Amino acid sequence: MSNIYDTIIVGSGPAGISAAIYLKRYNLNPLVISSGKSALSNTLIENYYGFESISGEDLYNNGIKQAQHLGIEIVTTEVVGLDPYDDMKVITTSGDYHARSVLLATGKARNKLNVKGSKDLIGKGISMCATCDGFFYRGKKLGILGSGSFMESELEVLLRFTKDVTVFSNGVDYKNPNVNVVTDEIIEVTGEDHLESIKTKNEEFKLDGLFVALGSANALDFANHIGMELDKNNNVVVDASFMTNVKGIFAAGDVIGGFMQVSKSVSDGAQAALAIKNYLKNN
Ligand SMILES: Cc1cc2nc3c(=O)[nH]c(=O)nc-3n(C[C@H](O)[C@H](O)[C@H](O)COP(=O)(O)OP(=O)(O)OC[C@H]3O[C@@H](n4cnc5c(N)ncnc54)[C@H](O)[C@@H]3O)c2cc1C
């Protein structure tokens, strides 16, 4: 196995970078993995201590520069999965990384499926997790909704259970010679007690199951895959030391809800780093 980091921090916004700075200054070895886009993009911040007015982008870039100045390693890639039971593995589109602990600082997680009829069919033919539910659809006719790296990693799992998978890229130009692809936008899913079909403007597709893997993986996806507890607003639940119900996985910033502001994210990151330092002493 390659390098094992003390902590892998997923996210390079205020929470992730603040935690990285504190961990580094505790003489630990953090790695920051981030796809780059933070809630700070396209904002103007005028209520953060020490800055009369600063663009979100400048504040974000200042944080990255400060971390780099301290020698903190930052990798730009997309995290598509976590496996806490395999030497704390963080799975990205450019390979796997391992650590003794993980801090999720991935920002506010939003439910990505918002199509007529879908709400009542989640868990009844609509699944958010190929690893969790793919097994129940062996040999069945499946659809997968999405078009990015996260979808492709979920598709790979589904293809172990059935060869009959159609990718619904929902309006995005997507090509894959190994599977059927429907690019038209989805307008409705139908079914009484169980999913029956999915409709685009011009066609209807009968399906036994639909897996949702839109956009990048967020905390909801991670939670579905590893059994991490969420509250009713889809915020990651943490204890007083910012640890989730999954041992060694911590969370900070907007992803845990509460007052969603830069100041609180920076504070969460600092406190989580202290808690991680103490955790690493005993584990
Ligand atoms: C329009 C708008 C205006 C705002 N105005 C203010 C304001 O005036 N003052 C204020 O204090 N706050 C403001 N906020 C809120 C503030 O931006 C957030 O509270 C803060 O950015 C949260 O920090 P965070 O580190 O928790 O998450 P984020 O800053 O959202 O960072 C999340 C990080 O996780 C990474 N990530 C997510 N998923 C993955 C993945 N699968 N793989 C790899 N990386 C991933 C992202 O790339 C990003 O680096 C505003 C927010 C918005 C949207």
Structural features, described:
The protein has 283 residues and is of the alpha/beta class. It has 2 domains: 4-110 and 217-282, 3-Layer(bba) Sandwich (FAD/NAD(P)-binding domain); 119-212, FAD/NAD(P)-binding domain, CATH 3.50.50.60. It has 6 helices and 17 strands. The protein has helices at 14-25, 56-69, 130-133, 149-158, 219-226, 262-282, and strands at 4-10, 30-34, 44-45, 54-55, 73-76, 79-83, 89-92, 95-104, 126-127, 142-145, 165-168, 180-182, 186-190, 197-200, 204-206, 209-212, 249-251. The strands form 4 sheets. Strands 1, 2, 5, 6, 7, 8 and 17 form a 7-stranded mixed sheet that branches. Strands 9-16-10-11-12 form a 5-stranded parallel sheet, with helices on one face. A 3-stranded antiparallel sheet has the order 13-14-15, with no helix packed on it. Strand 10 (142-145), helix 4 and strand 11 (165-168) form a beta-alpha-beta unit. Helix 1 (14-25) packs parallel to helix 2 and helix 1 runs parallel beside helix 6. The longest helix is centred in the last third of the chain and has 21 residues, at 262-282. The radius of gyration is 20 Å and the shape is globular. The model has no long low-confidence stretch (mean pLDDT 95). The site of flavin-adenine dinucleotide has 35 residues, from helix 1, strand 2 and helix 6.
